Structures are given as structure tokens and as C-alpha cells.
Amino acid sequence: MARAQDFDSPRGRSPRFVESAPRSSDRFGRATEWVARAMGTPWFLLLLTMFCVVWMVWNTLAPPAWRFDSAALGFTALTLMLSLQASYAAPLILLAQNRQDDRDRVAMEQDRQRAERNLADTEYMAREIVALRMTIDDLSERQITREFLRDELRALLAELEDPSTADERAAEERRRDRQRERP
């Protein structure tokens, strides 16, 4: 019989491989974001410019035996290095943008869910306020005063302290109801 964890992993792959794959791709993604962020800074541009200037000065002014890239050929090695750097930079920047898009998508979904919860909570609170207003209007129509509410609360407290007073309270309530019914 198949174990439960067998259904959690693809066929032919160990669960350990499946668990380590997201971590390594995440590490690679973080590295691409770091490179993309670093390439977009003034320091990177300054260092790259200084590197190119030093390269060209060295290969122009150094003794011919020490030169490794010919100025007569248009600094071919420097051109190839910069082309290689640019060919890697574009995909790394795109990978970093894709990861940012994924994070933005998750954040928008969480914001949408939060907004739905806030709307539901607001509607609930509005219904509760309407119910309270209706109750207050109902109380004012009956002309229930603070004194009446205090008497009711005192009677309930007395009933809680001594349950035998419940019959007396019921008789008192009937008497009050009869008085209210009379014109």
C-alpha cells in the first residue's frame, strides 16, 4: 500500500530533491535580484567606467610587451567582455522583474482579501448600528425611562442573588404591564 508522502512527490524523484529545489531556485532568484540591483547603482556605473578607462590607458600607454589588448584593433577583448556582461545582464534583470511581478501579484491578492474582509466587517457594523437604533426607537416608543431600566436591573440582580424572588418579580412585572395597558 502506498504511503501518504508518496502522493506528495512526483514519480521518480525523492522527496528530499523536491524540498531542496525551491530553496535553490529561491537562492538563485535572490542572487539575480542582487545583481540587477547592483547593476542599477551609480557605483556600478562608476566602477565599470573606471575599469574601462584603466583598461584603455594600460593598453595604450604601457610598454608593448605588457599590453594584452590592442588599441589598433579597437580593444577587441574589452568589447567582448562588455558584450558578455551585457548579454548576462539582460536575462538577470528580466528574472528579477519576474520575481517582483510575482510578489506584486501576491500582495495585490492579499490586499483584495483584506478589502473584502473590511467591507464585510463594515457591513456587519452598519447592521448592528441599525439594530441598536431600532431598539432605542422601540424603547423610546414605550417611554421606558432610565428609572425603569434601573429598577429592572436591580430586580435582575436581586433575582441572581436570591432565586426565590423570581416569583415576586414576575408578579411585579404583570402589575406594571397592566398599568401600562390602562389608558
TrEMBL record:
Outline the segment boundaries, as ranges, of region: Disordered.
1-22, 161-183
Pfam families attached here? DUF1003
The answer to keyword Coiled coil applying to this record is yes
User: Which intervals of the chain form a coiled coil?
Assistant: 98-125
Signal peptide range equals none
InterPro entries, per database record: DUF1003
UniProt feature, compositional bias: Basic and acidic residues: 1-11, 166-183
Keyword list (alphabetical) reads:
Coiled coil
* Domain of life of the source: Bacteria
What PANTHER family does its record include?
INTEGRAL MEMBRANE PROTEIN-RELATED, MEMBRANE PROTEIN
Q: What is this protein's record name?
A: Uncharacterized protein
* Protein's organism: Microbacterium sediminis
